Amino acid sequence: MNQFLEKRHSALRDAERKAEELFRVVDEKGILRDGVTEKQINREIYELAFRMFGIKKYWHKRIVRAGRNTLFPYRENPPDLTVSEEDIIFLDFGPIFEDWEADFGRTYVLGEDPVKIKLRNDIKQAWEEGKAFFQSRPNITGSELYAFVCDLAKKYGWEYGGPHAGHLIGEFPHERVQGEEVENYIHPDNEVPMGELDRNGQPRDWILEIHFIDRDLEIGGFYEQLLTVE
Fold it and tell me: How far from 75 is each of 71, 112, 190, 225, CA to CA, in Å?
């Protein structure tokens, strides 16, 4: 591994560890609770992140979704909901640590609803299976990994809820540098091998995200983290 790649992977690992720590404290402090709106929870997490790490910049909009809003993929902007007593909630945050991006998503269940708990557990297991599939195929394309993730949703009894299953990650602002082309996403139309080098001849790093939904029950779960950096 060259020096540039070592530095990038170290920075991405550190950013993700801090995001994971933030989510752990959010859970411990009981910020995810009934009787408050998604926007209120979002604001409290933003304030906590600033106190913990001095974070003010996020490379994408901060997402807190509860109840039926968990059906919606990232680009949607559903109306603000008040969290209920037995709700399912997911968080999707992209904090920037010293100009390096994290992208971290987790799902939480209030109460003991077994279907919601199964969904929360299924997406974590599916993420691990997606990573193993990716690692087993050196020339895998974005479309092949997306198809595998959609098949995983069916295997677990859910529907896949997003137009893609992840994207490139790197130094802020990676989107401005890499653009919005499907080749930069784990997308059904991306036929480019994910291991192909970028325009500077460097390996590309990827985020894998899992979004399973049940439209009849109006619930969804989301799990997201680094795919290519251990």
Answer: 12, 30, 19, 18
Name the domain count of the chain: 1
* CA-closest candidate to residue 113, choices 228, 214, 5: 214
Least confident of 2-6, 36-40, 81-85, 206-210: 2-6
Whole-number Å distance between alpha carbons of 93 and 63: 6
In this prediction the pTM is 0.94
- State the CATH number of the domain containing residue 195: 3.90.230.10
Q: How many CB atoms lie within 10 A of CB 223?
A: 24
Residue 176: per-residue pLDDT: 47
CB of 136 within 8 A of CB of 171?
no
The confidence band for 60, taking pLDDT boundaries of 50, 70 and 90, is confident
Which residues sit opposite 97 in a β-bridge? 100
Query: What is d(CA 4, CA 16) in angstroms, rounded to the nearest whole number?
Result: 18
Query: Does 175 or 87 have the greater pLDDT score?
Result: 87
Cα 102 to Cα 53: distance, rounded to the nearest angstrom? 13
Domain range for 47: 3-226
Nearest to 181 by CA among 193, 171, 189: 189
CB atoms within 10 A of CB 149: 26
Q: 82: how many CB neighbours lie within 10 A of its CB? A: 14
